[in-house]
């Protein structure tokens, strides 16, 4: 029954989206949870397709709304735990060593980021679960700083449940028009990406100017000493 319902409501899906749909057709609600777990590890997987489609399928009685929310939230937590483990395995020293090899980034930036995360980590993990890209990335610094695991799980579960519920309910209410959610989600993601690109561009420009100014002062100092 699930396969028939999904096929009836399915627009032209290809690539990763089609693969996610096949997973749901095979496993039902647990398949949606598995797809969301993988989406946390590989952000290109389309949660904005998986969640509304799962909501639509629940509205047709293939499985319950509670099942969808349970499995997709569990998938979010499992994916987040995997990335938390990556951060914990890296640890502070390995992270600092990696940062040292990145052009234009200082180890002091790592210290400032860590200090910020220590002060605002709870809000970052909770809200980050509802922001594209950051949904995955925020788990890594949580692991690096060894945020209390129980607290991390509570914040991740709560934030993920809110995010998943919004998209699942949208598909549930919209029915066969569930796909109209995707453009809105895509627009939100594009806005986030643009904001990140602007922030990174501003950071790089500031660092280039700072480094040029530093080299100019060093060269001027050497000329002064050479003239004495």
From TrEMBL:
One of its GO terms (cellular component) is plasma membrane. InterPro entries: DedA_domain (IPR051311), VTT_dom (IPR032816). Residues 45-172 form the VTT domain. It is found in: Cell membrane. Its main location: membrane. Keywords: Cell membrane, Membrane, Transmembrane, Transmembrane helix. The chain crosses the membrane at residues 68-90, 149-175, 187-209. It is a multi-pass membrane protein. It comes from the Bacteria. Belongs to the DedA family. This is DedA family protein.
């Amino acid at each position: 029954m699930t396969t028939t319902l999904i096929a009836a409501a399915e627009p032209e899906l290809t690539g990763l989206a089609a693969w996610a749909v096949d997973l749901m057709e095979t496993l039902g609600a647990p398949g949606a949870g598995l797809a969301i777990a993988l989406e946390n590890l590989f952000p290109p997987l389309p949660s904005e397709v998986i969640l509304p489609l799962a909501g639509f399928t629940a509205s047709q009685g293939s499985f319950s709304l509670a099942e969808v929310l349970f499995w997709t939230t569990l998938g979010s937590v499992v994916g987040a735990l995997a990335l938390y483990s990556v951060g914990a395995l890296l640890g502070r020293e390995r992270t600092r060593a990696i940062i040292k090899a990145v052009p234009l980034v200082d180890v002091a930036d790592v210290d400032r980021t860590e200090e910020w995360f220590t002060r605002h980590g709870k809000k970052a993990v909770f809200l980050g679960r509802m922001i594209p890209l950051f949904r995955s990335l925020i788990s890594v610094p949580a692991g690096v700083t060894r945020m209390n695991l129980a607290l991390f799980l509570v914040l991740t579960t709560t934030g993920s449940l809110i995010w998943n519920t919004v998209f699942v309910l949208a598909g549930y209410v919209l029915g066969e028009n569930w796909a109209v959610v995707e453009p809105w989600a895509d627009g939100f993601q594009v806005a986030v990406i643009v904001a990140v690109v602007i922030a990174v561009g501003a950071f790089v420009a500031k660092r280039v100017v700072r480094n040029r100014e530093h080299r100019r002062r060093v060269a001027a100092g050497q000329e002064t000493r050479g003239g004495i």
